[in-house]
Specification:
By secondary structure, the protein is an alpha+beta fold. It is built from four helices and six strands, in the order αβββαβαββα.
């Protein structure tokens, strides 16, 4: 979130997080893609979200995540994204998943590479006036990683 908007993700209570996500749950059946709330096990606190869904910017299925600042660098992004990728490939026919990040966000680039994503191409982001690296993983690469 350091490179997106004002960088805000808040520690919601479970009740607030459920309210925010409840509308999305009601629109989805068990096999649709979407975002899930992520909680820290050690303090049972909402720390952000992770999911796979359609991106208008990429015109493709995209992995995305956002975390509270005090949750950065603790492995949450990698752990949650690995679970999301596993579930996505188990319950859907999605083959290719893209992910993009600000070119200066080396932490997110490392997360994507650790998950098995590889650089695919760059796409211009008009709001920041920079080319954004787009990473890709496909079903074959993902299953070969297991």
């Amino acid at each position: 979130m350091q490179y997106i908007g004002d960088g805000s993700v808040y520690h919601w209570t479970k009740e607030v997080a459920l309210g925010k996500y409840k509308e999305g749950f009601s629109r989805q059946d068990n096999h649709e893609l979407g975002n899930l709330a992520v909680y820290s096990v050690d303090c049972d606190a909402y720390i952000g979200w992770c999911g796979v869904g359609y991106s208008k910017y990429l015109d493709h299925i995209e992995l995305s995540y956002r975390y509270c600042r005090d949750s950065w660098g603790k492995g949450y992004a990698t752990e949650a994204a690995a679970a999301i990728l596993s579930e996505t490939y188990q319950v859907s026919d999605v083959d290719d998943i893209l992910a993009c990040t600000h070119p200066d966000n080396t932490a997110s680039i490392k997360v994507l590479e650790k998950l098995g994503f590889y650089f695919s191409h760059a796409k211009l982001s008009k709001p920041i006036g920079k080319n954004i690296p787009v990473y890709k993983i496909d079903r074959k690469t993902y299953t070969a990683k297991d």
